[in-house]
Automatic annotation (TrEMBL):
GO terms for cellular component: membrane. InterPro entries: CRAL-TRIO_dom, CRAL-TRIO_dom_sf, CRAL/TRIO_N_dom_sf. Residues 93-258 form the CRAL-TRIO domain. It comes from Papilio machaon (Old World swallowtail butterfly). SMART domains: SEC14. One of its GO terms (molecular function) is phosphatidylinositol bisphosphate binding. Pfam families: CRAL_TRIO. This is Clavesin-2.
């Protein structure tokens, strides 16, 4: 059952003004994306795509229809060009069933006062080394992101919180081994998802993962790099977020990170057929030709204008 909360009527009005959304703009945008699908041999048929996803792309691109077209096209084609990132659609079966022993993935139910959706990624205490599979964690994050898109409401942007105090020295080597998957996933998040990344908070990062953090930051443009915030402890987050949004163990009023992460695991299971269909959005028989291959090159992503 979906449990993401939307904005209040007042918040919704403010968000729409910020996005530049006027009367009828959203409906026209949806029609335009459906027309693009109908005219393309490699994109899904218009009736196959959930309307909510199309609305997310239009709003995530601040009503810029050309940009929405580009991102939605990349979103669909990524399913074919990066099939290894999307082939597993369950957190309850191998090879992704062990990931949640290592990493909690928890989009939070309530929006901030600014209308932002907060997602927590928490490295769990006492995780088994065998569960710390970075490539599998990347796939799990993309899977939860796809499930969230099914349920998401009107928001003004995203905030990520990485709680890394339980990271071990061995993780740096694992990160290096999975560098290709990590790089592609970060670049797809910018190029192929309707995401407006507003802030990234990293909490409790030990010096031993400095190289991993530097690698991740190298995969994004300067605008995003300026939006990183480092904190020593989770209590510092109360200076940036209202307590009603944050989990109880961090001094907030929401359910625990573990409880919310388990809810998302169940939600992924509930949406299994939908998520499987989503991974087949692009027709492999007809592949589009891009001027720059965003699915294998770093440079193309660095040219993107990220809001």
């Amino acid at each position: 059952m979906a449990f993401l909360e939307g904005p209040s009527p007042k918040q919704a009005e403010i968000i729409k003004q910020e996005l530049g959304e006027g009367s009828g703009d959203l409906e026209r945008g949806v029609r335009d994306l459906r027309s693009m699908c109908a005219a393309s041999p490699y994109l899904p048929q218009p009736e196959v795509v959930d309307k909510n996803i199309l609305e997310l792309f239009i709003r995530g691109c601040r009503m810029d229809q050309e940009r929405a077209r580009s991102k939605f096209e990349a979103f669909c084609v990524a399913r074919a060009r990066c099939r290894d990132l999307y082939e597993h659609r369950s957190l309850s079966e191998p090879p992704l069933n062990d990931v949640l022993q290592f990493l909690d993935i928890a989009p939070l139910p309530k929006l901030t006062d600014e209308g932002l959706r907060v997602t927590i990624f928490r490295v769990r205490a006492n995780y088994a080394e065998s569960s710390a599979d970075i490539a599998a964690a990347v796939r799990a994050i993309l899977l939860v992101s796809d499930a969230r898109m099914h349920d998401e409401t009107l928001i003004s942007g995203d905030v990520f919180i990485w709680e890394t105090s339980n990271v071990r020295a061995s993780l740096a080597a694992r990160m290096a081994a999975a560098a290709n998957s990590v790089r592609r996933a970060i670049h797809l998040a910018h190029a192929a998802y309707p995401q407006r990344m507003r802030r990234i908070h990293v909490v409790g990062a030990p010096p031993l993962i400095a190289s991993s953090l530097n690698f991740i930051r190298s995969c994004v443009n300067e605008k995003i790099r300026r939006r990183y915030y480092l904190h020593q402890k989770v209590e510092d987050l109360l200076e940036h977020f209202p307590s009603r949004v944050l989990p109880a163990e961090w001094g907030g009023e929401e359910e625990s990170v573990e409880v919310i992460a388990k809810k998302w695991k169940r939600r992924v299971d509930e949406l299994r057929d939908y998520l499987r269909d989503l991974s087949e959005l692009s027709n492999l028989a007809e592949k589009p030709q891009f001027d720059t291959d965003i699915y294998g090159t770093v440079g193309a992503f660095r040219k993107l204008d990220i809001d």
